[in-house]
Amino acid sequence: MFPIYLLEDNQEQRNTYAQVINDTIMINELPMQLVCQTDSPNALLEAMAHNYQGLFFLDMEIENQKDAGLQTAITIRKQIPAAHIVFITTHGELSFLTLERKVAPLDYILKDYGSDHIKTNIREDILKTNDLVKSGKYKKENLFTYHIGPRYFSLPISEIVYLNTSKFNPGRVQLHALKKESEFIDNLNELEKKYPMFFRSDKSYLVNLDLLDHFDSQKREIHFINGSVAYVSVRKARELVKLLK
């Protein structure tokens, strides 16, 4: 069963959200379960220990601590890079912090819009998460994970276009994805071992051939569906032609 967690310090609201979650699961016969409903961030974190997936509905303010839910989300993201996180809050002004802290929530539900709005969004977020889980897009083995300092990030391998060593920052790798670019400390040799689905086109490039648009054999350039380009060594060009044939 795919676990769902609920953090809300208002007991009446917590009971209402839990009922919506359970009803949505039952009506749609989803392989999900509400495994924790609590007003304690620590209790929630203990409940999710040793898990690698989950949908989390988090109140932003807990017991007058305005960003308690955000701090909990940061911890969740470190332990479960592929976690689906939804904030339910009165603090719309804090939404930018979720971007600044790289939490990347699935949804940000404002309580000010009323009970019906909250219930509708909870239902939609559960169904959306179920669709993602069914597609396999966010399974642990299909994720690329990296970290920048103490912050951990992940994205589907299917969205990565290529990785290359940084020309100006030795010891760092640049990530080029369909909707994201980043740079982090690592090396391509280790990444090639960890993610064998990528093709080593050159000593400086690991590429995702699933996103290839065409290969210019004269210029030894791989052109991707998003318009970006990676280079291929002479030896690897022969190997790539064989693969494409």
Task: Give a written overview of the molecule.
The protein is of the alpha/beta class and 245 residues long. The protein folds into 2 domains: 2-135, Response regulator (Rossmann fold, 3-Layer(aba) Sandwich); 144-244, OB fold (Dihydrolipoamide Acetyltransferase, E2P). The chain has helices spanning 11-27, 41-47, 68-79, 95-100, 115-135, 188-194, 234-244, and strands spanning 2-7, 32-38, 55-59, 84-89, 107-110, 143-148, 151-156, 160-165, 172-177, 181-185, 199-202, 205-207, 212-216, 221-224, 229-231. The protein has a 5-stranded parallel sheet, sandwiched between helices. A hairpin with a 2-residue loop joins strand 6 and strand 7. The radius of gyration is 21 Å and the shape is elongated. The termini are far apart. The model has no long low-confidence stretch (mean pLDDT 88).
CATH architecture name of the largest domain = 3-Layer(aba) Sandwich
Please report the number of helical segments.
7
How many domains would you count in the coordinates?
2
Order of helices and strands: EHEHEHEHEHEEEEEHEEEEEH
Given the helix and strand composition, which structural class is it? alpha/beta
- Kindly state the mean pLDDT as a whole number? 88
CATH superfamily of the largest domain: Response regulator
Give the DSSP E fraction (strand runs of 2 or more residues): 25-35%
| CATH topology descriptor of the largest domain | Rossmann fold
What about the largest sheet? 5 strands, parallel
